[in-house]
Each structure stands twice: as structure tokens, then as C-alpha cells.
């Protein structure tokens, strides 16, 4: 399986130009792009036959597709992904778009909901797509947590806060997590969560993991020194203590109890690491991200794209997100900077209102 960077590096300048022009032509017109059109626009003089051959090669690589019997080509989802990651040139936000977004700040009202609603309307209006605005993450103490498995690669965390606020967040669980492991994680967290915020909970788990790790180390030290056990993958996240055959035959009850204790501590450490990972996933966020077609699992709309960016408070902490959902034939070069600008604007507006 090729990754995008490899595919791009395997193309010569001519292939790259043909590919770029097909994608740009498709994004602006929505129609398949033919070799004749490309031959007219190419920076070097080439025949239509040469361009057709390049297009066939790009189709063979899985980057272009011919939707009908026509000679025209359109980019595949893989092609769009490659273009967006490696060849996309973004335009500066125009003065008109900037003015439309800045107009949302005119009101001095304290209601954050109304402000975000106006931002959503402005974003939809200027991009002609559906806007997505996730309001600031809640940092009140947690009353109850529940994880719900939605699909093999998608899960939902339901957070019920002590002040009655309820929040749902979708995240991608680590491979191998099951509905029962999520239930177990939720039970474990609910026993500890009372009165703690999500951030507090995460800190507590980090210190629990460190403490477990130290306990295991001190107990295992003697066994390793005596040659009764050894570390496998030492220092790695999934290291194990391998107990040698002779140690399993120990008759001393104290030593046997110590071995059982080490095994139990390992099980506990593993469970805490899994739970820490769940907490990490419910809090994390990144810069502007683009989900194309089938990657857009959050909305299960394979023919759509989502351009989304988190926004931050004055302490540079991610508190929400804004985005645009539209057809895969979005004008990415225009929409990516608009979403980025909107996220920064919302962050500033909420910081001015003291939202954190």
C-alpha cells in the first residue's frame, strides 16, 4: 500500500501537473476533465496522446477515475486526499469573507450560544456548505461517564456533569477495544470521577500509572537479580516480566504470593493504561483537518467532506471546534483558510467574554 508522499515522489513533473490540473478543473467545474482541455493548458507543449497516457497511469495508481465512457477523468477519494495533503495551495481570506465573519462580534451580549449560532450562520453563508460548531468543552465536575461503541473504529463518550450539562463526544478507540472493555473502563472511572473534572481525572490516572509502575519495579527487582525472571521489551509501553520455569516451582509461600501480586499489578497497570487512553482521546484535538468521503465516518456521508478546526481559549487550551461539511468537490483552497480564520476568531471572542 503506497502512502501519499511516496505516490507524489514517484510522479515526474508532467504527471504531477496533469494530476493537479485534473483535480483543480474538477473542483471548479464539477465535471470530468478531458485530455484535450489539458493539452491546451499544459506548461510544456505535449500531444493529447501523451496526456492520455499520463492520465491512464494516474488511473492505474488509483488517483483518477473515468466516471462514464467519456474520455474525461475525475479524482478518486485517494486522489483528493493526495492533492489536499501535498499540492493544495490555499488562498488568503478575502476582505468580504473577513467582514462577514467579523460582523458576528458586534453584539456585546454574554450569551455564548447566540454568538456561536451567528458564527455558524456566517460560515454557512460564505462557504455555501453546512456549518458545524461544537460549543466549548465543559469543565464542571463529572457526575457520570459512559462509553458507547458505535462501530469498530468509532465510539461515543457521554459525559454527565454535576451541573446537569450533558455532552457527547465521538472518538476513535484504540484497535482491539470491545464494548465490554469500554463498559469496564466506564465503571472504573465512575467509581473515581465524583467531584473531579475531566482534566483532574486524567492527572489522577497518570499518577496512578506511575505509582503502579514503581510498585512493579521494586517487587520484580529481586526476582530479576536472582535470575528467576527477566524483562521483555524493557522500557516499551508493552513490556512484560517473563517468569522463568524455576521461579514457578518456588515452594516458599511468601515468594509465590509476591509473584501473584506482580501479576495482579500488571493487570491493573494494563487496565489503567487503557482507561488513560480513553480519557486522552476524549480531550484531544488538532489543527485544521480535512476528512474526505469515506474518511468522514463521523457523519457516515461517503460523498461529503468535512473541514474542521478546534478553537482555543486564552490559555491555548482547546475548548471546541468549527467546521464546514459539503460535497467532496469543495473549494478546499478557499475553505481551509476560512475555517482556520473562524476558529481563531471564535477563540478570541470567547476569551474576551472570559469563557475557559
Cα-to-Cα separation, first versus last residue: 43 Å
Number of helices: 12
The CATH superfamily of the domain at 95-137 and 285-352 is known as: GAF domain
Task: List low-pLDDT spans.
Answer: none
Q: Summarize the biggest pleated sheet.
A: 4 strands, antiparallel
Strand order of the largest sheet: 3-11-10-9
- Any idea what the radius of gyration is? 27 Å
The overall average pLDDT, rounded, is 77
Described by the principal axes of the CA atoms, the overall outline is flat
**Count of DSSP E strands?**
11
Question: What is the ordering of alpha helices and beta strands?
Answer: HHHHEEHHHEEEEHHEEHHEEEH
Structural commentary:
Belongs to the HrcA family. One of its GO terms (molecular function) is DNA binding. Keywords: Repressor, Stress response, Transcription, Transcription regulation. This protein is an alpha+beta fold. Among the domains are: 4-86, Orthogonal Bundle (Arc Repressor Mutant, subunit A), CATH 1.10.10; 95-137 and 285-352, 2-Layer Sandwich (Beta-Lactamase). 50% of the residues lie in helices and 18% in strands. The protein has helices at 4-10, 13-29, 35-41, 48-60, 77-86, 95-102, 112-127, 179-193, 198-225, 245-248, 253-283, 332-352, and strands at 64-65, 74-75, 130-134, 142-151, 154-161, 166-171, 229-232, 240-243, 289-292, 304-312, 318-327. The strands form four sheets. Strands 3-11-10-9 form a four-stranded antiparallel sheet. Strands 4-5-6 form a three-stranded antiparallel sheet. It has a two-stranded antiparallel ribbon with strand order 1-2. Helix 7 (112-127) packs antiparallel against helix 12, helix 8 (179-193) packs across helix 11 (253-283) and helix 9 packs antiparallel against helix 11 (253-283). The chain is flat. It starts with a helix and ends with a helix. The mean pLDDT is 77.
Amino acid at each position: 500500500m503506497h502512502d501519499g508522499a511516496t505516490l507524489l515522489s514517484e510522479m515526474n513533473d508532467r504527471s504531477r501537473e496533469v494530476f493537479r490540473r485534473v483535480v483543480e478543473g474538477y473542483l471548479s467545474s464539477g465535471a470530468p476533465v478531458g485530455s484535450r482541455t489539458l493539452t491546451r493548458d499544459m506548461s510544456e507543449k505535449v500531444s493529447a496522446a501523451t496526456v492520455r497516457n499520463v492520465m491512464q497511469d494516474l488511473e492505474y495508481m488509483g488517483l483518477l477515475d473515468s466516471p462514464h465512457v467519456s474520455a474525461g477523468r475525475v479524482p478518486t477519494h485517494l486522489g483528493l486526499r493526495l492533492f489536499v495533503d501535498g499540492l493544495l495551495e490555499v488562498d488568503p481570506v478575502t476582505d468580504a469573507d473577513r467582514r462577514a465573519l467579523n460582523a458576528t462580534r458586534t453584539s456585546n451580549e454574554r450569551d455564548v450560544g447566540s454568538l456561536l449560532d451567528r458564527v455558524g450562520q456566517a460560515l454557512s453563508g460564505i462557504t455555501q456548505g453546512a456549518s458545524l460548531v461544537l460549543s466549548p468543552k465543559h469543565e464542571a465536575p463529572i457526575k457520570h461517564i459512559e462509553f458507547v461503541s458505535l462501530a469498530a473504529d468509532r465510539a461515543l463518550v457521554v459525559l454527565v456533569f454535576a451541573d446537569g450539562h450533558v455532552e457527547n463526544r465521538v472518538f476513535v478507540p484504540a484497535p482491539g477495544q470491545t464494548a465490554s472493555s469500554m463498559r469496564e473502563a466506564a465503571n472504573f472511572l465512575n467509581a473515581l470521577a465524583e467531584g473531579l473534572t475531566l482534566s483532574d481525572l486524567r492527572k489522577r490516572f497518570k499518577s496512578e500509572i506511575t505509582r503502579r509502575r514503581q510498585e512493579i519495579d521494586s517487587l520484580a527487582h529481586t526476582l530479576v537479580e536472582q535470575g528467576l525472571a527477566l524483562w521483555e521489551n524493557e522500557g516499551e509501553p508493552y513490556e512484560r516480566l517473563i517468569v522463568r520455569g524455576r521461579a514457578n516451582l518456588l515452594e516458599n509461600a511468601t515468594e509465590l504470593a509476591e509473584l501473584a501480586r506482580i501479576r495482579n499489578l500488571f493487570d491493573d497497570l494494563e487496565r489503567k493504561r487503557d482507561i488513560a487512553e480513553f480519557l486522552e482521546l476524549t480531550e484531544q484535538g488538532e489543527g485544521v483537518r480535512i476528512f474526505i468521503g469515506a474518511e468522514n465516518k463521523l457523519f457516515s456521508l461517503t460523498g461529503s467532506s468535512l473541514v474542521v478546526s478546534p478553537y482555543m481559549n486564552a490559555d491555548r487550551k482547546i475548548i471546541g471546534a468549527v467546521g464546514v461539511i459539503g460535497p467532496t468537490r469543495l473549494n478546499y483552497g478557499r475553505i481551509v483558510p476560512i475555517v482556520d480564520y473562524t476558529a481563531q476568531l471564535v477563540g478570541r471572542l470567547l476569551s474576551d467574554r472570559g469563557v475557559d
